[in-house]
Amino acid sequence: MSYASLSVKDLTSLVSRSGTGSTSSPKLPGQNRPVKVIPLQHPDTSDDARPPSIPFDDILSGWRAKIKRMSLVDWVETLFPCFRWIRTYKWSEYFKLDLMAGITVGIMLVPQQAMSYAKLAGLPPIYGLYSSFVPIFVYAIFGSSRQLAIGPVALVSLLVSNALGGIADSSEEELHIELAILLALLVGILECIMGLLRLGWLIRFISHSVISGFTSASAIVIGLSQVKYFLGYNIARSSKIVPLVESIIAGADKFQWPPFLMGSLILVILQVMKHVGKAKKELQFLRAAAPLTGIVLGTTIAKVFHPPSISLVGEIPQGLPTFSFPRSFDHAKTLLPTSALITGVAILESVGIAKALAAKKRYELDSNSELFGLGVANILGSLFSAYPSTGSFSRSAVSNESEAKTGLSGLITGIIIGCSLLFLTPVFKYIPQCALAAIVISAVSGLVDYDEAIFLWRVDKRDFTLWTITSTTTLFFGIEIGVLVGVGFSLAFVIHESANPHIAVLGRLPGTTVYRNVKQYPEAYTYNGIVIVRIDAPIYFANISYIKDRLREYEVAVDKYTTKGPEVERISFVILEMSPVTHIDSSAVEALKELYQEYKARDIQLAISNPNKDVHMTIARSGMVELVGKEWYFVRVHDAVQVCLNCVQSSSLEEKKPSFLRRFSNNNGSSSYNDLQSYNTLLKEPLLPVEK
């Protein structure tokens, strides 16, 4: 029997449809009760039906509806997120906590993330303080996170150093400063554009393993770049590990003990205080006080003993930064790739940290609004001599542990930075360079995420491979190459997963009407002559060829050990379970039509189960519903199996009966008892249980 050529009339002779919400079949020969099938409602595809909506129109209509609902207060809070906490501020409850958190982060920020990271970026320490001053005040107004602490960070400082080193020589200090300020402006503009256009989702395509591998490798490079202050001699300025190690070895004869001993002592003290502060909650203040302790100790030793081999920070200008606009944009085009990379880091680190803290503190945070706030902070910061700033994980963690409640803690931190610029810069000139280097090394040591590598090895070898590739290329070929290779492999994995979706052959769990992956549930069984396939992804032009190839494989690869039902020699039905399919495009629909024609030529009937509304509408508009036949679309897999199995059973009866009669006559009416009993059993026992 050719099922692909069955008409509606032929099929309804097996399964008759009623308008009562269920479908009942007449009794097949030997069956006691009919099976029931839920009818599938097909969409209206007539010309007067509602046309398909364009996603962009849906977005615009959603924005328009949202704008109409917004009140004046909503507009103010959208433009100035600080009003969200100002309106509900509880002075008696919040102020003390915000004050302590602001002071704690400020004490941590001045020596560590301001002065130390400015040296890492190849800039005078004063520009680290400038970058920690204006952006903090601006972010407190335009930023939506209440605990995020922004300012210079190690990774961005390394990116700045690497970008400036490729344009200007290290001796051209003025040009370095101008380029760093211009870079902050470009980063701010990119962040604002991405925030306004709500493009933050683009960064989701970069795997976490890429970020972890990149950060770990960068931390190693940062640590090695600071070793020169311990050793007492200059080393090559590079973002690659090989030149750094070679220059360290080549200058070994210039090694000096005093800076090494002082730097090592301060580093040990920092690590111990940080560890104790993490381990014991009542001593967590030690974690924030560690950088200040190292600075005070190093400055005291340098002031008292005046060791000539230990280099000091030197004179630092006193006073607040003045307003100035970048004087030249000649190198803007060259700096764009680095500004894009820093923007990506801002999205991944700052927005990620901010969302995690918001979830922990149970308030809402819009990632695009957060990105816009960071952009405004960088733009206005660049007008006051700041280089790129972003959210700091370590400072934000300290702020959160100090129970910061609102953005007022950031304003207090900014006041501390301002006081340092006004009154403390004369003291900073006695700070040893090795003390600042020890602070940087202590800070970045926690960025080497070997725990993540071990976890990935244990859980997902593919992600571990991605982590290894990214970290290795970053170490040996530089930051830009490492990022490009990591992102490239990350996108390649995404594309591979999309173009080669998971497809499962389904079987029925014993005693139920539930159908599951036969590889995951070995006890599930299939029916002879029927293949049930579930496609676990959207179907579109990139993966339809793979899906068609797999369907052809399933057509011939049938597991004989898990099948039930009448014995047949070939596949007669292919059922596509499409409930996981969220989208299907025109290329995929045309390919499915071609597949249907191939099946029809081989007397195989295609059946489709449970397509969602959008997928069903696309299929209906393409004419595929009429091509396949409305009677071959089902609400449930079980309904499709019942109809297909009835067809297989009827075909088996038609084929088996003449053969039996032929044998009966050939044996002069003396057929074996087993043949007769087998035929009677096939007639009298239904293959499907009837649902109530």
Automatic annotation (TrEMBL):
InterPro entries: S04_transporter_CS, SLC26A/SulP_dom, SLC26A/SulP_fam, STAS_dom, STAS_dom_sf. It comes from the Eukaryota. Its main location: membrane. GO terms for cellular component: membrane. Residues 15-26 have a biased composition (Polar residues). Residues 15-53 are annotated as: Disordered. Residues 520-644 form the STAS domain. It is found in: Membrane. Keywords: Membrane, Sulfate transport, Symport, Transmembrane, Transmembrane helix, Transport. It is a multi-pass membrane protein. It holds the Pfam family Sulfate_transp. The keyword DNA-binding does not apply. One of its GO terms (molecular function) is secondary active sulfate transmembrane transporter activity. The chain crosses the membrane at residues 94-114, 126-142, 149-168, 180-201, 213-235, 255-273, 285-305, 335-358, 370-387, 407-428, 435-455, 475-495. NCBIfam families: sulP. This is STAS domain-containing protein. It comes from Brassica campestris (Field mustard).
